[in-house]
Amino acid sequence: MFLSTNKCQGLGECIKQCPTEAIRLINNKAFSCITCGICYQECPNHAIFKNEYGGYVVDRIKCNGCGVCQFNCPINNIKIDEEGMVKGICSRCGRCVDACGINARVDGFDLIKEKQLNYLKSLDAILPSYNTHNSSNSKEVSRLSLVTKYEDCTLCGRCEYYCPTNAIKLRVDKARGICNNCNVCEDVCPTGAMKDTIINHDYCSLCLNCLKSCPNEAILVDNYKINIIKLDQKNDGSIVSCINCGLCDDVSDTESFKRINGKLRYDPSSDVDTLVNFNQAIELCPTSSLHINSNGIIMNNTQREYFLEGYCTMCGNCVKVCENKARIYKTITWDGKANSNCISCGTCAEVCPKNAIMLKKDGIEVNLDECILCETCGIYCPADAIEKSTLAKKIVIDGFNNVDSKLCIYCKLCYDICKQDAIIDNGDSVSVDDEKCIKCGACKNICPSNAFIFDRNFVNKNKTVGCFNGKSN
User: Fold this and answer.
1) Are 313 and 166 in contact (CB under 8 A)?
2) With contact defined as beta carbons under 8 Å apart, do 339 and 152 qualify?
3) CA quadruple 54, 60, 65, 66: dihedral positive or negative?
4) Under DSSP, is residue 32 helix (H, G, I), strand (E, B) or coil?
5) CB-based contacts of 324: which residues, under 8 Å, 6+ apart?
6) Bridge partner residues of 2 (DSSP)
7) Residue 34 reports pLDDT greater than 50
8) Which of the residues 6, 145, 321, 448 has the least number of beta carbons within 10 Å of its own beta carbon?
């Protein structure tokens, strides 16, 4: 909630600027909706929802003006006007703070909960039990992962080839059938005829082991001699791997998959229904590395048609085989802060699987006690305002963003918050410039009247197809 301090002189500027008429004067002090959520809980039409700011918004299409919210409001702040529109519910847009010329309005989420309650009790308000966004006691969150030092990685693919669970995905921007300099051929040559993709034909026994093992099908046989198809250029592309965040374990309803001592462990013999057990885990996997292998496996003398792959067991095999020392163990940490690129769009709060992020007008607030450092927020962030350890990235490929003029109250909050200048002020209404709009959702999240008709589709920016051993990820 937003509160008024003792500085408040009852000037009423905050009341004038509040787009939902959620502020009134009591004893010459500005008092507003406490965002307790009782109206949201009691609405029989489900016409009230909680937005990414922690405030509440009335869906005027669903609302029939029945008055249940008004009747149940513990501080009598809700009213219904002559046109049947519900007023008095705070969407936490923050305009009242900006409007106050003497800095008497503050964000209650920035205060200790006890102070909020004491202030309200001083006004003799009858208070319900309610939950605010709990501040974290932690200063940072951390986890151990196997990561790639991208400045040292040559995208050769050795780590992907030797990963036992197929948890590493490589994409190289060149045609299949060209040597990737992974040196797998050298590893498998029984006579030592291969060295740095150079063939000593005097030693070569033409056993074809290199040809069978070449991940990129870059070895040919011509006139009883082995040849490697090369291209003198630096590899370009991306490499993405499981980051060991444990989100898959959290959402998988099965005893066959667990995180033991910070390491993911899978027992296919206990996996009753692979296709059902891991649907949500695969869908929510931040790096999209988790997947079902349908090639089958023999387990305890029994053929299993499906089994899980794409999770990191922290075995370190990728570290051992990387000739450039680009794969390393690293402790990843985050203090819950976004950088100056943050556009307050709310995408991070929207996609966070642990509901650990609350959107604020000037950034985000993260409950680090709930955060598992899955990096989903950073992967989806359209402004790259949240640091991440992976190259995994989700981008918007299509969508739409329009304003329903019948619902718009012309508060211009969307116009003020849009960093892309994609909101057009028409004098008595607003509209969206499709060419400038990046579908970040900032306008939708801050709109107190739910006037935006908004949708978008995300896709992996580094969508990859594994080429090693014929594996497809």
Assistant:
1) no
2) no
3) negative
4) strand
5) 152, 153, 154, 156
6) 107
7) yes
8) 6
What pLDDT score does 132 carry? 45
**What's residue 220's pLDDT?**
95
End-to-end CA distance of the chain: 46
Cα-Cα-Cα-Cα dihedral sign, residues 401, 97, 357, 150: positive
Cα–Cα distance measured from residue 373 to residue 201, given in angstroms and rounded to the nearest whole number: 51
Q: Which position has the higher pLDDT, 231 or 337?
A: 337
Provide the residue type at 201 as one letter: H
Question: Could you tell me the pTM of the whole model?
Answer: 0.86
- 3-state SS of the chain: helix, strand, coil percent to 5? 20, 25, 55
C-beta of residue 19 within 8 angstroms of C-beta of residue 411 = yes
pLDDT of residue 116: 55
SS3 456: strand
CB 48 within 8 A of CB 56: yes
| pLDDT value of position 175 | 80
Write the DSSP assignment of 307-353 as a string of letters: EEE-------HHHHH-TT--EEEEEEEE-S---TT-----HHHHH-T
The three-state DSSP-derived secondary structure of 412-431 is CHHHHHCCCCCEEECCCCEE
> Of 351, 341, 348, 382, whose CA–CA distance to 365 is shortest?
348
Q: Measuring CA to CA, which residue among 50, 51, 82, 88 is closest to residue 69?
A: 88
> 293: helix, coil or strand?
strand
Q: What CA–CA distance (Å, rounded) separates 223 from 13?
A: 88
pLDDT at 298 over 90: no
Give yes or no for residue 176 having a pLDDT over 50.
yes
Residue 307 backbone dihedrals phi, psi, to 5 degrees: -155, 160
- Residue 45: CB atoms within 10 A of its CB come to 14
**33 φ, ψ (degrees, to nearest 5):** -45, 135
**CA dist list (Å): 295 to 305, 326, 402:** 7, 30, 46
Q: What phi-psi label fits residue 463: left (phi over 0), alpha (psi between -120 and 50 degrees) or beta?
A: beta
